[in-house]
Amino acid sequence: MAATAILARQIGALATKGGGGWYGPHMAAASRAIAERLPLVDLVLEIRDARIPLSSEYEQLRNYPSSSRRIIVMNKMDLANRSQIKEWKRYFEQQNCISYGVNSHNKENIKELLNFLLARVRELKRTNDFNYTAVIMLIGIPNVGKSALANSLHQIGSTNFIVHDVRRTLFETISSFDGNVQVGEDLSRLIEAELTALREAFQVPVELGEEAQNKVAAKLLNLYRTGRLGHYTLDSLPWHT
Ligand SMILES: Nc1nc2c(ncn2[C@@H]2O[C@H](COP(=O)(O)OP(=O)(O)OP(=O)(O)O)[C@@H](O)[C@H]2O)c(=O)[nH]1
Ligand SMILES: [Mg+2]
User: Can you give the pTM of this predicted structure?
Assistant: First the structure.
């Protein structure tokens, strides 16, 4: 066995059994709680350390029956050898396991993972209902990055949710507007209506009073700048004006 493999085994053994002896009575209780909840969730993410994809296995899941609901997330991908991650993905594929490499500290990675998870849930539930609330369980041995991943998913997920709400609010307000945007007064009325409607979408507290409008405007501008509102060109060609 290659020296690195022996080292990985030893690290894995330390993490799972030896060392601090993390598998105590409270862990047995946690394992029972997990087993009870497993049938209730849409997806199970088994978080592993991408540098020790085998040794960081959560053994209780080894015989998990429905493999299509279980995803092995190789976290800390940024710390692992790139070409080996590809090989590990191939390995898991051969084992009929779905795997995914991620760096929990990287926003783009998390966005891609979220989209991947949404697609999986839609496929499994055969639903296109965007309001469907999926239940996802994160499992893993200590220190593989469960908290880091959960926090990042929460952060990016809720931002996506807000963006979706903002786009819908903008559209609904302009659709129900009965004025003429070429007329200055009407346009001001529309802007006022948009900013008021957007307060809720941006979750800006009403108590802020006047300041609330500025906050909403700044947040809206920020979304536009980063392209998250959609593909809008604001300048008109000169010969059209
Ligand atoms: N470089 C890098 N570090 C990460 C990543 N994910 C987590 N970490 C770091 O790994 C350490 C452990 O992460 P946690 O999120 O606390 O791990 P955990 O699985 O919740 O650990 P326990 O709650 O103790 O079981 C922290 O120092 C994180 O900052 C990652 O993708 N890349
Ligand atoms: Mg944690």
Answer: 0.71
